[in-house]
UniProtKB/TrEMBL annotation:
SUPFAM superfamilies assigned: Phosphoglucomutase, C-terminal domain, Phosphoglucomutase, first 3 domains
UniProt keyword Phosphoprotein present: yes
Function description: Interconverts GlcNAc-6-P and GlcNAc-1-P.
Signal peptide (UniProt feature, chain positions): none
Magnesium in keyword set: yes
Residue span(s) of domain Phosphoacetylglucosamine mutase AMG1: 181-291, 307-459
Cofactor annotation: Mg(2+)
Species the sequence originates in: Digitaria exilis
Domain Alpha-D-phosphohexomutase C-terminal residues, every copy: 504-549
Protein name per the record: Phosphoacetylglucosamine mutase
PANTHER family linked: PHOSPHOACETYLGLUCOSAMINE MUTASE
């Protein structure tokens, strides 16, 4: 009875505005922030139910709209392992968000609880961690989420404050592992593991002072704020933050940030010709995306971009090398460490990156766009490395592999073999697993991992750029009446419906050297996206254009 009363109550406090339809898409609910309170309140109910279902394990809600304009907002739910909410619950998320009135909402919850075997009532507990980014609607929406959570009897909400999205995911994961889930614990882990990585840099590789200079575009969001907080403790790295989110520096995601730099390929606001040649990184508004760039010349605003594919390649190369050292080293123990290393990409990965990775002999697999697909796939390996070209990705280590590393390190040090190359490689992988966020792609931890690897190799930005050259590519958006009429298969690389469309794409593509083209309905906008690549920019443009005409 109490449960029914609370649900009816909260639903009547947040009536659904007429004509609003919410959908739990690739990145949760997202829309104009001012209209979001009903959906976010319901996300609160959903998160609390998810926690009850999972025997009171902690789940999370982040209030953010990532790289989208400052007026937008949204909510995403994190499961107990820190990853995205199980996709199996998404249809319920949609139905709940769109329940037209309090009674419909109550019936929906009761029915779902019955179907899913979720016990409702005073004997059960639930715990939800909440975080939000710096958007002006954040506080108001966080309150709506709180009210939703409190509508489930036994549920307990903890507001973790203003955070990056990956921080919240990390905290949820830590909480469920019984590790301290505070921001200071997160920072400490980042700072300590980064220091360990630098301690393991071969002595002859320590570069000059300038090589350690890094300018970071914080997108005027939360990532810049957090980086300012810890940069003094990152010895061996000289970080300057621009678009740091301070009053007067600029607007969130406006003319800056990872999405802007990756799509427009021009310098973000706040950078000038004086920065030519310096290594720069760009985060998005909630700091789960990372790209690198360099202002290429003083005369125009173009940049040399290092996107997610090249970050992935750097990580893969490093990990592969450490595994090789461990397995081929002639040291006394010579214990083999069989590891299944998998690389996960999407159709947007530049063809040159895929070729580069395959040439290294690595296993490369593809999933549809969206972190939830990539992350899940990466978990199938001992070490799974995944990135989207747009800068969203991480490295995940299986628990089994981590414990193998631990016992190998113990064995080596007990045999006084702790000066060996093999031992150092083991320690590097262990430090990497601490540094890189295991829950979700994290621009701050990704950035520190990149910096540690560059120092390890003694590499400049230029060396990194030259790993391979990107094939020229072009992306177009096509407005259609119903984008769901296009259905894709094979990780979005092929169209299955309408069946004639793939034939048309194939016919166009064969005319181009290194030609590759695919179309897919966007998961976040009402458009169909076209991607084409070929050996020259003119050809990539022309391939994209002709395929777009077939889509219209
Ligand atoms: C969301 C996804 C991002 C993906 C993008 C594709 C997450 C956290 N974010 O932003 O990974 O690249 O959608 O958008 O999964 P699209 O479907 O409109 O092309
Ligand atoms: Zn983001």
């Amino acid at each position: 009875q109490e449960q029914r009363r609370r649900l009816l109550d909260v639903a009547s406090r947040f009536p659904l505005p007429a004509g609003c339809r919410f959908s739990y898409g690739t990145a949760g609910f997202r829309a104009d922030g001012a209209t979001m309170a009903p959906a976010i309140c319901r996300a609160g109910i959903l998160a609390a139910l998810r926690s009850v279902k999972l025997a009171g394990a902690t789940v999370g809600i982040v209030i953010t709209a990532s790289h989208n304009p400052i007026g937008d907002n949204g909510a995403k739910i994190a499961d107990p392992d820190g990853g995205m909410m199980d996709q199996h619950w998404e249809p319920f998320a949609d139905a709940l968000a769109n329940a037209p009135d309090p009674d419909a909402l109550l019936q929906l919850v009761l029915q779902f609880a019955k179907d899913e075997g979720i016990p409702l009532g005073s004997h059960y507990t639930a715990q939800v961690l909440l975080g939000r980014d710096t958007r002006p609607t954040g506080e108001y929406l966080l309150d709506a989420a709180l009210q939703g959570i409190n509508a489930i009897v036994g549920a307990h909400a903890i507001d973790m404050g203003i955070l990056t999205t990956p921080q919240l995911h990390w905290m949820v994961r830590s909480k469920n592992k019984g590790v301290k889930a505070s921001e200071s614990a997160y920072f400490k882990q980042l700072i300590n593991s980064f220091r360990h990585m630098l301690e393991l840099v071969p002595k002859d590789k320590s570069g000059d002072e300038l090589a350690n200079k890094l300018i970071v575009d914080g997108a005027n969001g939360i990532g810049g704020v957090k980086l300012e907080q810890i940069k003094a403790e990152l010895s061996g790295l000289d970080i300057i933050v621009r678009n740091s989110g301070k009053e007067g520096e600029g607007i969130l995601n406006h003319m800056c940030g990872a999405d802007f730099v990756q799509k427009e390929r021009v310098t973000p606001h706040g950078f000038s010709p004086e920065d030519v040649g310096v290594r720069c990184a760009s985060l998005d508004g909630d700091a789960d995306r990372l790209v690198y760039f360099r202002v290429s010349s003083a005369s125009d605003n173009k940049v040399d971009l290092v996107d997610g594919d090249k970050i992935l390649s750097l990580f893969a190369l490093f990990i592969r090398e450490q595994l090789d050292i461990i397995n081929n080293d002639g040291s006394k123990v010579n214990k083999l460490l069989p590891a299944k290393l998998g690389i996960v990409q999407t159709a947007y990965a530049n063809g040159a990156s895929t070729q580069f990775l395959k040439d290294l002999g690595l296993e490369v697999v593809f999933t549809p766009t969206g972190v939830k697909y990539l992350h899940k796939k990466a978990l199938e390996y001992d070490i799974g490395v995944y990135f989207e070209a747009n800068g969203h990705g991480t490295v995940v280590f299986s628990e089994n592999f981590i414990s193998q590393l631990e016992s190998l390190s113990k064995e080596l040090s007990s045999q006084a073999d702790n000066g060996s190359a093999q031992y150092h490689a083991v320690m590097r992988l262990m430090a990497a697993s601490q540094l890189i966020n295991q829950a979700v792609g994290d621009a701050l931890s990704g950035l520190l991992f990149v910096e540690a690897i560059l120092q390890y190799r003694g590499w400049s930005f230029q060396n990194w750029c030259e790993l391979y050259s990107d094939l020229p590519s072009r992306q177009l958006k096509v407005k259609v009446i119903d984008r769901s009429s296009i259905v894709t298969t094979d990780a979005e690389t092929k169209v299955s419906q309408p069946s004639s469309l793939q034939e048309l794409i194939d016919k166009e593509t064969v005319n181009y050297s290194h030609g590759r083209c695919f179309v897919r309905p966007s998961g976040t906008e009402d458009v169909v996206r076209v991607y084409a690549e070929a050996s020259t920019q003119v050809e990539a443009d022309s391939l994209a254009k002709s395929v777009a005409q077939h889509v219209e």
